[in-house]
Amino acid sequence: GTAPPIHDLFPYGQSLESELENDVVVRWRGLPGWTAQTMVEYLDDGNVGLRAAVNGIDNPPISLVIILAGTNDIGFLTSSMTPTGGATDIDDAVKPIVNLHKACLDITKGEHKIRTLAVGIPGSAWQQMNSSASKLAADMNSSIQQFAQSYPDGLVSYTDFPFPYEKNDLWCSDGLHLSPEGYKRLGNDLAPVVKQILERCN
């Protein structure tokens, strides 16, 4: 869920693939406007489901699933709050994102193990205006990082979103979503992280 329905979809997978070695194939799925909770509810849907997609890819099977989710959840959870409104339970807020990772990690194909990379929730104009949203994003990212660090066998990695929200050409005018240039930058910046993880797979 990294692009709104009214915008064209510019997946960062294209620039990520171009930065990686030639034998690395990157596939992507964007769900504009979806919360992580909705993604969990549709895990096995043949058209949009994450688990269905991962299960359906063989020869070779997927080595790494990159999950960037949570932006829409923060908007949903804080849109009715006052700037200093009541706190959201962090475990409840993060649970859908964790469940997306677990859905991939639980897939077994012989001895092959799937790894996941959690990309931190990016900043936004909404977070700059609303202290509850800003705190929730920081707390959720911290919780996601703890999940990654505690998962057995180092199968889950975490990386902060690689650049902050600013009013520049990396972001759309809505202050929430990346521009085409922003998606390109995201793929380029994630490439070194992905390379390190894939090296551990070999």
TrEMBL record:
InterPro entries: SGNH_hydro, SGNH_hydro_sf. Coiled coil: none annotated. Residues 12-185 form the SGNH hydrolase-type esterase domain. This is SGNH hydrolase-type esterase domain-containing protein.
